[in-house]
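Shipment paperwork, digital attachment
Item: protein structure file
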Amino acid sequence: MGQWIKTEFGSIALLSNHEPFPNTDQALIEPNGLIAISKTLEAEKIIEAYKQGIFPWFNQHEPILWWSPNPRLILFPDDLKISTSLSKKIKKNNYQFLIDKDFISVIKHCSEIKRKNQDGTWIDDRIINAYSELHRLKIAHSFEIYFNENLVGGLYGIILDGVFFGESMFHNERDASKIAFVLTIQHLKKIGIKMIDCQMKTNHLLSLGAIEISRDRFVQLLNTYIKT
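Attachment content:
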């Protein structure tokens, strides 16, 4: 391992493109799960990170920060919870659900969402370019909701074997992201996805059936569900 940056909470790896990530048990407790810093964001490095339970997340004008939080929020497809009101909206079927029709629009819409307690966006050009490359490689995918032929909601993420790593959602119409999420999970279940990585806890995801598990358990499940 190369250089390390010392903080009051421990040391963080400063990685070059070719250096491996530290073991996830070396992630800092505070802030929650920060494990490494790098200057560039490459598609291959993102894949390497996900396989180990690590993901990139940073603000504009920051270096690339890599995280492995403990606990980790996940959803098993069989545990998806759909409220009665949401189920009724889905049954109306007055929208179109499409996959990978317009990945770049989905990720750009996600970058424009105003999020509570956040200034600016963490989905900057570095994220957009790297995940667009992963989309070209058929690893990153978008799941989209259209109403009257207009894109009104959706989400994107990465599929590695039996795991879907969810990244971000957006909606321009009420409940469009919820509908996209439910239909995405149902689709992922059909194609054999065993686990959805939701990363960090939100009440919205908890209401849809997500649960928290330890980082060690999460890494064990990754090793079970990702074969390559």
